[in-house]
Design a protein that fits this description.
Blueprint lengths: L20 H22 L4 H30 L4 H24 L3 H20 L3 H7 L4 H4 L8 H6 L1
Helix pairs in contact: 1-2, 1-4, 2-3, 2-5, 3-4
The structure holds fe (ii) ion (FE2) (2 copies).
Amino acid sequence: MEHYHHEPSIRWTPAFKLGIPILDEHHRGIVSLINALDFAVRRDENAEFFVNTIFNLADYYAKLHFATEESLMKYAGYPDLENHKKEHADMVKESFALATQSIRVRNPYIYLKFLHEWWINHIRTCDLPYGPFVRQHTAQDSTVTYTETGKHLWMDSCFA
Ligand SMILES: [Fe+2]
Ligand SMILES: [Fe+2]
């Protein structure tokens, strides 16, 4: 199998970690998808196809992740849950609008830039602050420490 050596647009670092394995895994998976899209459009491979594909994967993954994150916050009794849920809901709408626009005007960077900025900003400013609270209030719950695979999407190996 051919392996590509490509500088990822987002390099995963421990600074992104919440210390909640299932959510950290989701974030890392999303970052892999963003790096895959970045890789494809920089090579100018059928960008419309990749925007479509990554949109579908990222949309599915984001919804799964948001639902998991919100249920853990609810379970922990996190006080800022409603605002956080609104951020997630707005993102799903904006993501669809920008992916559509990207395809219409044939500029994949519109969608790529949105994904890149939204996720980096959201993880750093909205997700990291709830980490200690949720960890503290779910310490006895095994789902919090559960990880599905210990591995991530195939892209991780390509971009390592
Ligand atoms: Fe979030
Ligand atoms: Fe998150």
